[in-house]
Amino acid sequence: MKSKRYKKLPSKTNMENPDTINKLIPIIKKNCTTKFDESIELSILINNKQKKNEINIRTAVNLPSGTGKKIRVAVVAEETKQNDAKESGADLVGGDNLIDKIKNGELNFDKLICTTSMMLKLSKLGKILGPKGLMPNPKLGTVTDNVSDAVKNAKAGQIELKNDKDGNIGLSFGKKSFSDDKLIKNFDMILDTLEKEKSSLTIKGDLIKNIFITSTMGVSYRVKLDKNI
What we know:
By secondary structure, the protein is an alpha/beta fold. Helix content is 30%, strand content 21%.
């Protein structure tokens, strides 16, 4: 059952003509009528069904304005790298002992970083980490010997861009409390990253088919892009 608050929001907005991100962000904020600081979210549909192969996007993007979320970062590293991780702000740091905790179901972190030498041991926990989207990946910068930069990036607002089998990418790129300029900078960085990904792919036509913007408890609007990607 829809709440009284939700019923007061505009209806069938996803059927309206698309508009630019600059015009939609103030509208989305106006629709954030809950008492908490709602996340501003994107739903991106890519053209992943190609004749010769299926397109799969999996990369990371460092949002210039951050995400507004506190991220708990865990680092699995050999002893010589553990101090670097701690000094960079990692919340959990360990070697075999941390791997054992993860094996026993202790997953009290949002992002997991692993050094190259420890990845062989950690990879055996794929059944635990994989379904949670926590398995480190070199493409995302989470399998690295530069744990200091990896932790700082994660804390600063690095997010993952990954499409499902139907070509959908869902992500949060800020909060209602962010200024419009900060949200626009994050949005532009996401598009720039997808444009770079497109240049490395063999794809017919545009990569992005549709983009919708909404908030945690709001309604969605279709975004009009300034250029084809």
